[in-house]
Write a structure and sequence with these properties.
8-stranded parallel β-barrel; 12 strands
Length: about 250
């Protein structure tokens, strides 16, 4: 059985790690390179870096950050934010990223998924999907959750898989930063409908939430930020707890 992955997420703004609630009210959480090294040495399976306010200038900054992180860690890491071309991906992978995450650019130009998968391989193309419930339907949002689309989460996820994405990072905007648990019903529906790994994001508040998302949500990996950044949960303790609950993890 494949082991379940624990993935700290570092949201980057102006070169610093930040964390908010429901995508707003950001506060500083430290230097991303220092945090990356700590996580790599304390049991994280992978890392995700998201430039949450990406512009052309910051993309170049992010490429430099990737280079600095690659020198410090020995676990896979994914980089996202403002990626919209083969050249963007080429630069980040060349600087040491293992995977890239695309979100708004994939919705605006779905053929980009096919193009990147053909050029670099599905294994390094993650499509991030931010969604929230509106009138009972999960609706995809863009630009850091600010702009609603007409896309249904599950329909878009299926299309993303068909176009060659190797993994989906699903963030429930309703759960983000609330620490009330992951969107397990939606996650289970995604995991059942698709054949590629699903990363759960949004809502981690305690160790039980991770157990629940692996069992009830059928997630392949769980991503969290503030509970790790502010030492509310230590990854090694979390993994021991998951092991006690018969969830396969790498210790």
């Amino acid at each position: 059985m494949l082991t379940k992955r624990i993935i700290p997420c570092l949201d980057i703004k102006n070169g610093r790690t930040v964390k908010g609630i429901n995508f707003v009210d950001l506060r500083d959480a430290g230097d991303p390179v220092e945090l990356a090294e700590i996580y790599a040495n304390t049991g994280a399976d992978e890392l995700v870096f998201l430039d949450i306010s990406a512009t052309e200038e910051r993309r170049k900054t992010l490429a430099n950050l990737v280079l600095r992180v690659a020198e410090k860690v020995n676990i896979p890491f994914t980089v996202g934010g403002g990626i919209s071309s083969v050249a963007d991906v080429d630069r980040l992978l060349h600087n040491g990223a293992d995977k890239v995450s695309i979100n708004s650019s994939a919705v605006k130009n779905p053929d980009l998924i096919n193009e990147l998968a053909a050029k670099f391989g599905s294994q390094c193309i993650v499509v991030a999907i931010d969604a929230k419930q509106i009138n009972g339907e999960w609706i995809v949002h863009l630009v850091g959750g600010k702009v609603p689309t007409e896309l249904n989460l599950f329909d878009w996820a299926k299309e993303v898989e068909q176009r060659g994405a190797g993994e989906i990072l699903f963030t429930s905007m309703d759960h983000d930063g609330t620490k009330d648990g992951f969107a397990n019903k939606a996650l289970a529906k995604l995991s059942t409908a698709l054949n590629i790994p699903i990363i759960a994001s949004g809502g981690a508040g305690n160790m039980q939430h991770f157990t629940d998302t692996f069992i009830e949500g059928k997630a392949d990996a769980a991503l969290a930020a503030s509970v790790f950044h502010f030492k509310e949960i230590e990854i090694i303790d979390l993994k021991k707890e998951l092991k006690r609950n018969n969830i396969p993890v790498r210790l």
